[in-house]
Amino acid sequence: EAIMATFVFDFSEGNKDQKDLLGGKGANLAEMVNMGLPVPPGFTISTEACKAYLKDGKSPDALRVEVTQALRKTEDQIGRHFGADKEPLLLSVRSGAKFSMPGMMETVLNVGLNDTSVQGLAEFASDERFAWDSYRRLIQMFGKTVLDIDGELFAAALDAQKAKAGVASDPELTAADHKEVVAAYKQIVLDEAGLEFPQDPRTQLNMAIEAVFNSWNTERARLYRRRERIPNDLGTAVNVMAMVFGNLGETSGTGVCFTRDPSTGHSGVYGDYLSNAQGEDVVAGIRNTLPLAELEKLDPKSYADLRAAMRQLETHYRDLCDIEFTVERGKLWMLQTRIGKRTAAAAFRVATQLVDEHLITMDEALGRVSGDQLSQLLFPHFAADSGVMPLAKGLGASPGASVGEIVFDNDGATARKEAGAKVILVRRETSPDDLPGMVASVGVLTARGGKTSHAAVVARGMGMCAVVGAEALKVDPNAKTVTVGGTVLHEGEIIAIDGATGEIFVGEVPVVDSPVMVYISEGIDAAQQAAHGDPETQDLINSVDRLLRYADGVRRLRVRANADTAEDAIRARERGAQGIGLCRTEHQFLGERRTYVEAVILAETEDERTAALDPLVPVQRQDFVELLTAMDGLPTTIRLIDPPLHEFLPDLTELSVKVAVAEAKGEEADPHELKLLAAVQRMHEANPMLGLRGVRLGLKIPGLFDLQIRAIAEATVELLGQGKRPKPEIMVPLVGSVRELQIIRDRAEKIIADVTATTGTALRIPIGCMIELPRAALTAGRIAEEAEFFSFGTNDLTQTTWGFSRDDVESAFFADYLESGVLTISPFETLDGFGVGKLVKMGVEAGRATRPGIHVGVCGEHGGDPESIHFFHAAGLDYVSCSPFRVPVARLEAGRAAV
Ligand code: PEP
Ligand code: MG
Hints:
Blueprint lengths: L7 E3 L8 H16 L7 E4 L1 H10 L4 H18 L2 E2 L5 E2 L1 E7 L9 E5 L5 H9 L2 H19 L4 H15 L9 H19 L7 H15 L3 H10 L7 E7 L10 E8 L6 E9 L3 H6 L5 E2 L3 H4 L1 H18 L3 E8 L2 E9 L4 H13 L5 H6 L3 H8 L2 E2 L9 E2 L1 E4 L2 E7 L2 H9 L4 E5 L7 H6 L2 E4 L7 H9 L2 E4 L4 E4 L4 E4 L2 E4 L3 E5 L4 E4 L4 E2 L2 H8 L1 H7 L4 H20 L3 E5 L3 H9 L5 E5 L9 H9 L3 H8 L2 H15 L4 E5 L12 H13 L6 H13 L11 H6 L1 H20 L5 E6 L5 H22 L7 E5 L2 H5 L1 H7 L2 E4 L1 H9 L6 H4 L1 H7 L15 H15 L4 E4 L7 H9 L4 E4 L4 H12 L1
Parallel strand pairs: 3-4, 16-17, 17-18, 18-19, 26-27, 26-33, 27-28, 28-29, 29-30, 30-31, 31-32, 32-33
Antiparallel strand pairs: 1-2, 2-7, 5-6, 5-7, 8-9, 8-11, 9-10, 11-12, 13-25, 14-24, 15-19, 16-23, 20-21, 21-22, 23-24
Bound molecules: phosphoenolpyruvate and magnesium ion.
The site of magnesium ion (MG) has 4 residues, from helix 33.
């Protein structure tokens, strides 16, 4: 009875959409077979088989049977038998996960060769040298990747044979030489792995397949997945394919090509070819490759066939494809294709080119670019023609191009900054202790950590350039050196880091402004001028313009900005913000104005407090006049003061020490300081984030909110008087109960009515609140009775839903959580759709049930995160609000979410 195939699929049985089951390589091989392209026969072992193997520690029984069936089919198609003594069929075994993944076992070629089939191959190919060379390659690859033997041992044995034969290069070795190498290799296998090189072809195949399965869990593969947020449980597929040979003489060869230029997008012939070679020779760079166009002269027929296949693939995939191929004695074989990787600039250009060629729609074009790519294009970058070679490469964690002196610690960073230098903080990894150093630096470089490491998260938050996880770096903070290979760099030496590509350079590299940034902030004419006639830059600007305008046309989500000052607001508006979604007014009290708040806190009587609050009204009024002027005509959500009061007071320990020192010296303590100390002690909270902040503060010290409300109302009157169109909205933070909002709202309405009465100007200022506590989301239906709008504060909502302190958690244990797969990304970066997102959805629904059409937005950091934006679109929000810099990214992603 036939077994239902679940683990093994002939190439003719799948298609390109089955990447989950067949892996990327397998799915695309199947697609090429469907298209009638010349793919060597073979089959794909599914990711299901891999998962079963990893779960049980052994291959499922059915796999053995299904492999036999598929293998026989392959043999029948090609008319030869696997590992047979005569005309042997040989196989390549290659890994192929859903996402291409360096760090996993790649390839074993020539599987099926042994002491007898090598003779059969020699006769078949009429080339004894080729056959023994193939056999020694098999033992080498098998030894290295399946048996985990140090590759250097094989390389050394080959070198020894060359020395013995008195030749300089591999191709000069004779068949007899290769026979000796094979014997030496077998001995290496025996010595190192403790087993004979397996002579049974099927044993070779089974071991190679299991080696691919095992390679899913190598340390490097796990590390890569963690960095790229690829789930750990996908497993890899294995592709088993009949060998075709590019090294059967001058009429054979192997190459790689792209259907269009992956850096410019231009259609044409891009690729490399190496005659009389196997795939790994191209990668190993043993000989110089030829430009693909040369193949036309060497072998016009294969070249024409390849061009036809390239066109067919591009027509079919309707995208840039990259291809691996082999020519065996004048016959073209397609070994692999996939959608080609490309630079951010090429992504935009290719997308609009394909539209202009009528191959894709504008909707599809929008799907071909991403907010991350756009943000890469917005940062200044190193001049492409600088000719400086990178010293090392890490992960580009926060884009930008920074040049500065190396510093190793906070003191070094601040001292050099004060002296006027630009500095780059170099650490093995960073922790919250390094914050002062980061603040003083133009960039941060770490040897360890991934894209959610402390350095990466903090740098992105600050909009500073960061390269993390550059493992080649040996950082010695005591010696104040960083070593890369043989290069030792000292404190004070200049380095340059590229936060987009992760490249690290020694010395100055010239930085150029991004023309796309000029486009975003000054418009297309200015950008075209800044392009200085460079056609590629002009083309890029046009592509970005077309796609961004299209996104603006199709998106439903509006995009606002989080901006606290008029300056930020102007910047946000230039970049297309349609309003302000969050003005954090507490930021207006930092710096010199801190003392105003201090006076409010220290006030002991009502009169004292009023006296302390009064001078704040004109100051705040002026803030709001400026902000509302900058946002004239656009909605401007002003949030009443939020943070714990101790943030405005001196540090408890510092102050206690100061007072104690004075006492010890027998000096009279400063009465102001004593008063301050008493206040700090009184207000000290174990969990300030869960303490007296937000609306709680507004209820405890009513004057604070009142003065802000008055200032907003008066600023509005002033601007209306000037014929402007101010559109303020008052937002109450940290509401957990409808009653809290109701009290504030009643007071606000009285104050606004009072301002109207004194000025004679009617005011219409919506009052709403943040939804940033689970209770607020759970009771949103009631809160909506009092709120005219909602704004989800997903920072606090994440903090309180998970119970993760947003200030500590990233450094404390996120690394472990990411390692063990509890998290795949920090929930403070990308919204946790299942948990926190559920509260958002509930809040929206309940709010709309009470108050149909209630305006709902989000102003947590997630408002600028691409994946989260797609979530907010689906959840039916009206707008997202993000940092001014992210506005273009949010516009693009909101458009992508809508198509
Ligand atoms: C939030 O909690 O998501 C929010 C926007 O407020 P803040 O970050 O100021 O607490
Ligand atoms: Mg908050």
